[in-house]
Specification:
The chain has 496 residues and is an alpha+beta fold. Helices cover 40% and strands 26% of the residues.
Length: 496
Amino acid sequence: MNNSGKRPDSELRDILEASPVGVAILEQATGKRLFVNTALVKCVGASSHEDLLGREILESWAKAADYDNALADVTRNEYTDTFEAERLRQDGTHWWALMSSQPIIFNGLDARIIWQLDITDRKLAERELETSESRFRDFAESSSDWLWEIDSNFCVNYVSDRFQQITGIDPSIYIGNSRRDFSKENIKDEKWRQHLSDLENHLPFRSFTNDVTTPDGSRLTVSSSAHPVFDDEGNFTGYRGSATNITEQKRTEEARDEALRLAEAANKAKSEFLATMSHEFRTPLNAILGFSELMQAQYFGPLGSDNYLTYAADINRSGEHMLTLISDVLDMAAIEAGKRAYDIEFCSVPELIKECLRNVELMATECQIDLTSKVSDDMPDIQADVRSVRQILLNLLSNALKFTDEKGTVEISAILHNQELKIVVKDTGVGIPSDKLDAIAEPFSKLQEDLHLTQDGTGLGLSIVKSLVEAHKGELHIESELGKGTSVLVVLPVSH
């Protein structure tokens, strides 16, 4: 006997109302709801229990096919297997229910109780997973790379079909084989030993290259990258990665490297040739200069005509000019060939600048150019290759004078700051076009394209400066504006 005083149906209502699963009790004869609990009201989006009571359950089915199946299930007077059904909420949105039913007697009527668990989140997750898997398959098959996976023992358990399309190799021959097996023939290769060490330590790797043999016997170079995979507890489960065929890229790089090697060899041969030929030219030139000086001085008596003196002076001047040109070529060749010797010693920058100014003073006077300097006499001595610093100064000054018009100015300044010697030579000359700045310091570069305006020389002045500066781990910066002049900054690391 029920001591609570409640009728059995009332007790059942209380129990079902407390259930987190949606529940409806249908009259067997009509299919209309006799009872619904709060969980079901929430599932279908009804505003109250009364919105559902007295109405047929089949009104809220989403699809005709489901309707027929559900009609058969809920009207059979027997237990039903659990099934899934897509339902409609009152606002027209869809939800999914995991359902089962069984016959009962309720309020004295033959009825069926319908259990309806909301599985909408699960169904959405499944659909998202299907979409994700489909997206992954599309990416994997359309990619120029292929994808692969190995387990915690480094055995291959997945290779995408793209691998066979690219290489012609059946990927099944790798399934179940360890990545260690791929290195048996390369066991002495330091690259493979390091790679296997990275795997053992579960480290990511990128662009690891190795060769594979195709069915036709050709060799392909493959580049692989991968990241280690860990489960939620932090346990290592393997690697996932991608790979690509870089055979053509490797061949291109090898061809490029070979071309660079040949170019460097040709450049070295050129420098050595120029150095040798420059020495060969100097020997007869020294004789020409010596004999022309003797003729000018008339050591062995009068030449017999003043024209001979003029000719001797012209021969001497031309010889000196040619010797200067050859000296430039020889210097450039020696620097490029790495045969230039550098002797580091203490020197005074102010004294070096004064010496170089005296050397170009006559040229400045003849061209009516104002030549000035801004250098502190109390600058401490530095340790440097005196010959290189002198050559840099002379080249910068003579180059500035060469391209500065009459009544113009050339100024040189130097400071010592943070173990660096900074030399600046500024002029008010013709300037350098912006499209020529990058090439102006290249060997044999000429500023003027009009041969009538081109100054004498090889065009090696700035090239020699650049090469000497770079040989001393320094920097060369050129700023210029056409028609307004040029400023050249040389930065040399020094000690004092």
